[in-house]
User: Which sequence fits this backbone?
């Protein structure tokens, strides 16, 4: 489809894991509450984007989408819908033939948000394309902010994946320059221990989950605890920003666990309900709490909208944590499977920067 004249852009973008959960939407992909996550280092999507001017523009999106080297009609359909919606913001998209080739370096359905990494990688490619089409270099702040807006329209949590480190999304009086439209990096002091926060993802099951996040968000609209949830998330956001500032890891752990369990309590009390936790999920939670009580280590769990558990700890305690994972927690995992990850530096452009 493409000739040698096609331009190619390639971005690598991370997934992220939320400590304060985005759960419930309003308006056009805007969050009901402010969320906080950290971007992962190893769990990433790499997307290459080739584009070439059409001979005859036809006002519609023309694309091919490949996933792990295979043309993927279901992803292609989803991305075509997303790009058609974007034409009002990026009208040039209809003038080009677009080919995306995307790869995840982590297994499917493992509790790692693939929509976060894939939609942010895609958004970064689109903003790079926009710079080339308009021959206008954006400042770094403007570039990533625009990418965050575009990523958000594809998947809410993807708005946070255009940055590394700790990231918030959604307006909050406790976070400077926060917005519902885009994510904002959360500043950490040089000596903050959160710079070495780590994540071991315990795979209870890799089966496809029954309730998608998108459906879960929509069930919040009629949820009997909707108001209470928004209030709780705002309070948790306030408390966690104080805990981070005061290096109070005990409070940080308590809030993160409260958020994970609240998310599932909301899912279980939705109509229809989403019961995603498995017996082994609960066994892992109990084992983590027991080990924490016995060892006094600063570790805790969080869970996304699925059965797999993220064990969060600090790298300086890794030599205590790893034997516990191998000897105890892995027994509750499907085929003993777990993924070793940690906080990462954010996305990376893998093709040379274009000079203007
Ligand atoms: C539980 O970002 O996947 O992971 O905006 O519909 O794509 P859409 O939803 P998505 O929701 C993520 C929900 C969550 C919590 C979080 O990441 O904050």
Assistant:
């Amino acid at each position: 489809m493409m000739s040698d004249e096609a331009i190619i852009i390639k971005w690598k973008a991370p997934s992220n894991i939320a400590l304060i959960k985005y759960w419930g939407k309003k308006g056009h992909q805007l969050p009901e509450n402010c969320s906080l996550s950290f971007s992962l280092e190893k769990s990433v999507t790499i997307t290459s984007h080739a584009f070439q001017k059409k001979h005859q523009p036809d006002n519609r999106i023309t694309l091919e989408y490949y996933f792990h080297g295979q043309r993927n009609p279901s992803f292609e359909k989803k991305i075509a819908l997303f790009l058609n919606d974007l034409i009002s913001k990026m009208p040039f998209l209809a003038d080009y033939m677009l080919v995306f080739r995307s790869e995840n370096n982590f297994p499917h359905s493992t509790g790692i948000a693939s929509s976060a990494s894939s939609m942010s990688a895609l958004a970064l490619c689109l903003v790079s394309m926009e710079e080339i089409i308009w021959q206008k270099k954006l400042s770094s702040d403007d570039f990533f902010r625009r990418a965050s807006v575009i990523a958000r329209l594809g998947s809410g949590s993807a708005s946070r994946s255009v940055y590394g480190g700790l990231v918030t999304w959604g307006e909050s009086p406790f976070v400077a320059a926060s917005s519902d439209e885009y994510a904002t990096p959360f500043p950490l002091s040089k000596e903050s221990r959160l710079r070495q926060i780590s994540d071991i993802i315990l795979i209870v099951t890799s089966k496809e989950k029954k309730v998608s996040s998108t459906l879960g968000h929509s069930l919040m609209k009629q949820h009997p605890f909707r108001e209470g949830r928004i209030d709780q998330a705002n309070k948790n956001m306030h408390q966690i920003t104080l805990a981070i500032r005061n290096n109070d890891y005990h409070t940080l752990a308590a809030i993160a666990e409260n958020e994970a369990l609240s998310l599932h309590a909301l899912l279980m009390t939705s109509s229809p309900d989403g019961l995603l936790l498995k017996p082994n999920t609960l066994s892992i939670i109990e084992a983590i709490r027991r080990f924490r009580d016995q060892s006094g280590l600063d570790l805790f769990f969080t869970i996304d909208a699925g059965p797999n558990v993220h064990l969060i700890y600090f790298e300086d305690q890794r030599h205590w944590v790893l034997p516990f994972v191998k000897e105890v927690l892995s027994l509750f995992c499907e085929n003993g499977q777990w993924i070793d990850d940690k906080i990462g530096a954010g996305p990376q452009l893998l093709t040379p920067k274009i000079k203007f």
Q: What stands out?
A: Helices lie at 73-86, 114-134, 140-154, 213-219, 226-245, 249-268, 279-295, 318-327. The two ends are 27 Å apart (CA to CA).
